[in-house]
């Protein structure tokens, strides 16, 4: 039973960690290579990797999506340590509207214009920090969604994810607060009820034992009478 509880807790933590890794903002140092627009089919289960900014998009089986092609600076430790190597990365540029994740993005056209303005070549590079959420998976045709882009002086800039830091601090404080409330509730409400229930069970067991003892003593008296009344052979 203990192993089952530990397994369920690990699965629950992994589930929420996956959601947070997908939905929280991430920052990439990139050089914009090109921008384009392409019609995408949305008629299978991979639709979950695309935004749903309005009710109409739920009924469409395909729509035009804007993309930003970049060369991304590779990093270690979730983006904290930059590497000298680069890799290609393609981002989609979709409004999120009021749907999840709650970025309330409505400026797709402006972001596409900013990305166009930052296009550059290897000989004369322009580097930028692109904020996004989501994953890149070529097998499922999944692309991270670009949220914002801003120019920087070079590829070795250090980006501190302040939002994620404050988010996890707030989450930790909230979890500790909920844990404290639960422990207080358990001590004041559940533990006394459990104590009363255990006391009641003990009383019932004691009553049953007492009745069994009376029955046993009563049976013993009958056995003694039967022994006295039986004549010797």
What's a concise summary of this model?
The protein is built from 3 helices and 5 strands. It is elongated. The chain has 233 residues and is an alpha+beta fold.
Quick tags:
single chain; alpha+beta; elongated; 233 residues
Shape: elongated
Number of helices: 3
**Average pLDDT value?**
83
End-to-end separation in angstroms reads 62 Å
The low-confidence parts are none
Strand order of the largest sheet: 3-2-1-4-5
How many strands appear in the DSSP assignment? 5
The computed structural class is alpha+beta
Question: Percentage of helical residues?
Answer: 40-55%
Largest sheet: 5 strands, antiparallel
The helix-strand sequence is HEEEHEEH
What proportion of the residues form beta strands (DSSP E)? 25-35%
What is the CA-based Rg, rounded? 34 Å
Characterization of this structure:
By secondary structure, the chain is an alpha+beta fold. 43% of the residues lie in helices and 25% in strands. It is elongated. The protein starts with a helix and ends with a helix. The protein contains 3 helices and 5 strands.
């Amino acid at each position: 039973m203990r192993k089952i509880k530990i397994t369920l807790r690990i699965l629950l933590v992994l589930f929420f960690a996956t959601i947070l890794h997908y939905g929280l903002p991430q920052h990439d140092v990139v050089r914009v290579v090109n921008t384009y627009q392409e019609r995408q089919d949305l008629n299978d289960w991979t639709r979950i990797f695309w935004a749903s900014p309005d009710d109409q998009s739920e009924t469409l089986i395909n729509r035009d999506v804007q993309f930003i092609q970049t060369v991304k600076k590779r990093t270690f430790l979730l983006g904290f340590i930059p590497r000298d190597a680069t890799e290609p990365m393609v981002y989609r540029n979709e409004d999120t509207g009021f749907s999840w994740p709650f970025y309330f993005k409505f400026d797709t056209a402006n972001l596409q214009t900013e990305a166009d303005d930052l296009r550059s070549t290897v000989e004369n590079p322009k580097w930028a920090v692109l904020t996004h959420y989501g994953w890149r998976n070529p097998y499922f045709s999944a692309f991270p969604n670009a949220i914002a882009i801003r120019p920087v002086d070079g590829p070795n800039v250090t980006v501190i994810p302040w939002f994620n830091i404050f988010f996890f601090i707030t989450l930790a404080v909230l979890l500790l607060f909920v844990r404290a409330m639960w422990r207080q509730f358990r001590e004041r409400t559940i533990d006394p009820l459990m104590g009363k229930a255990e006391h009641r069970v003990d009383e019932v067991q004691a009553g049953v034992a007492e009745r069994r003892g009376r029955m046993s003593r009563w049976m013993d008296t009958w056995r003694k009478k039967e022994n006295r009344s039986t004549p010797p052979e």
